[in-house]
Structure formats: C-alpha cells, structure tokens
Write a structure and sequence with these properties.
Layout lengths: L17 E2 L15 E4 L3 E8 L2 E8 L7 E2 L1 H6 L7 E6 L2 E15 L2 E10 L3 H4 L7 E3 L1 H4 L3 E5 L4 E5 L3 H5 L5 E2 L17 E6 L6 E6 L5 E3 L12 E6 L5 E14 L2 E11 L13 E4 L3 E7 L4 E6 L1
Organism: Alloacidobacterium dinghuense
GO biological process, one term: proteolysis
InterPro entries: Aspartic_peptidase_AS, Peptidase_aspartic_dom_sf
C-alpha cells in the first residue's frame, strides 16, 4: 500500500493566482523552472508527457509518487500495471499503476517514470486546476532549490548549483523501520525539537502545505487544544483540526519561533505515520536546498 499525503494544506484564503516572472537567477546560473502560485503557496508547473501535450502539475515534495488524473491517462492510452490503495486520514481510495516514457518540466526530464493514476477531482475543488502531481520520484533525480523570497524553483543535475549553495547541512532522515514491509518513503524528513514535546520529532518538509500539522500528538505532547478549526486537505476532503499552542521548532542550529500548529481532532488518525510525526511547510524558510544523493538539506529561515 502506498501511503501518500492525505492532507498537506489547510485552505484558509480565497484562491490567489500569481504568475512568476523571476529576474533573479538560480545558484550556479542554473535556469529556473517557470511556475505559478495557487492558494498563495502551491507551485504549479507545466509538464510535458511522452513528447506531447502540456499539462499543469502541482509540484509537491510531500507526495512520494507522481500522480496523474485518469482523464489524462485515458487520453494518452496509458497501460495499467495493477491496482493499489492510496491512504489518507481515515480513508483510502483506489488507484492504478502506469508508466510514463518521458516526463519533462522546464529543461529537465526523467524517463520511464512509474506513476499512479488517481482521481484528482477533490484536489481541483480546492482551487487547483491540475492534471497531476509531480512527486518525489521525479524530484529525486535532481538537486532542488525552492526560493520563496525570489519566487524561484531550480532543478539541477550537473552539480553546479550545489557548489554555490552555502549554509549548514541538515541531515535527511531515511526511516529504517516500516511496519507494513513497504520500502521507506523518499521524502524530505528532518529531526526537530518542539518547545513542548517530550521527545524529538521527525517532520516532513512539504511544499504543498501552508502550516505545521502534527500526527498522533498524544505520544509526545501533553497539551490541551485551544480551539477546533474546519479545513480542507490537499485531497479536497473536509477535516476538523485541533489548534495547539504555538511551538518553537528547532532543527539543528536553526530556530523557528512560535510556529502555529494543528493536529487532527478527536479520534481521527493519520495512517501515514511511517517514519515521521508531522508536516512542516517549506514556506517558513527563505529558501530550501535539497540534495537527494547525499541526503541533506540547506535551510535558510525567514
């Protein structure tokens, strides 16, 4: 079973779309990847599939495997290679496997990419007019930099960008124990300390989230909720969240003060707790550089 992100953002605001026309260059003079913002923080990129067609895909560091809408899969006459379940908070949905011979965005491409054909209609209900989600299985082929200040997305397979990025290296955690026998998720997971937590926590850095969401907080937080908040997950489904006291988040030598935190309310459980305790939005940083080969990130807080 693939436990993909069941929710990664709570939609509070009216959808806002802004086209990015960056004049600042990526480190190492790497060409930036054009994108536009939806819901103020979600990056939508143009993707070409199998040498044809132009499709809008959400770029999401919190999704393990690239997703494609069934309508696009049908129009491309993609073959199916078996079925699976995609788990979200308390729910699961059917999906099927397929393979794309070529996936391109900007000047970058990946061949023979295995994908999930998955109904994205709930995502579109949140204001995302997309035909797919570009996940970690695509991004892991590159060094990745997300610059929130200059609105830059940079992908590089030459090593030029890495040589120009400065800052302390934060180790990425590769979970060693997965209870259901599946391979560990290739996600951006870092160890952090929360001001009120009884133990260190593992947080996934997520470009699709606009806040901090913690799972199964009874295991490491003894805090009362301050309020309940309705929200919409990135899967388009309604959720009820508990608002917790703000937490100081420390990642290595970096400190993020008074970060707003929510968790799933009541008896709602998140079945994806495979190697991480929650989600932290990438928008809390000026920029984030991810180096998949050597498993580290360079984080520059706002």
């Amino acid at each position: 079973m693939f436990n993909l992100k069941g929710f990664g953002c709570i939609v509070f605001a009216i959808t806002a779309v802004a086209t990015v026309t960056a004049e600042t260059y990526c480190p190492g003079k790497v060409a930036s990847v054009p994108y536009h913002l939806v819901n103020r923080h979600q990056m939508v990129v143009e993707v070409s599939i199998n040498h044809g067609g132009r499709y809008s895909f959400l770029l999401d560091t919190g999704t393990q495997m690239t997703l494609i809408d069934p309508a696009i899969a049908s129009s491309l006459q993609l073959p199916e290679y078996g079925n699976t379940k995609v788990a979200s908070a308390g729910m699961s949905s059917s999906a099927s496997f397929s393979k794309l011979a070529l996936v391109e965005t900007g000047l970058h491409k990946v061949t023979d990419l295995k994908v999930l054909v998955y109904d994205l209609s709930n995502l579109r209900a949140t204001g995302l007019t997309i035909q797919g989600v570009l996940g970690e299985d695509f991004l892991e082929h590159f060094d990745v930099l997300i610059d929130n200040v200059h609105k830059l997305l940079c992908l590089d397979s030459s090593g030029a960008m890495r040589a120009d990025v400065r800052g302390p290296h934060t180790a990425l955690i590769i979970p060693s124990e997965i209870t259901d026998g599946s391979p560990p998720p290739n996600l951006i997971i870092v160890e952090a300390r929360l001001s009120d937590a009884t133990r260190p926590v593992r947080l996934m850095l997520d470009s699709g989230a606009n806040g901090a969401i913690l799972f199964n907080t009874s295991e490491y937080l003894a805090l009362r909720q301050t309020a309940r908040l309705p929200g919409t997950g990135v899967d388009g489904r309604q959720r009820i969240f508990s608002v917790l006291p703000p937490q100081d988040v420390k990642i290595g030598s970096l400190r993020l003060p008074a970060v707003p935190v929510v968790s799933l309310a009541g008896t709602q459980k998140d079945p994806r707790g495979k190697g991480f305790d929650g989600v932290l939005t990438i928008s809390l940083f000026r920029r984030v550089f991810i180096e998949y080969r050597d498993h580290f990130a360079v984080l520059d807080p706002l």
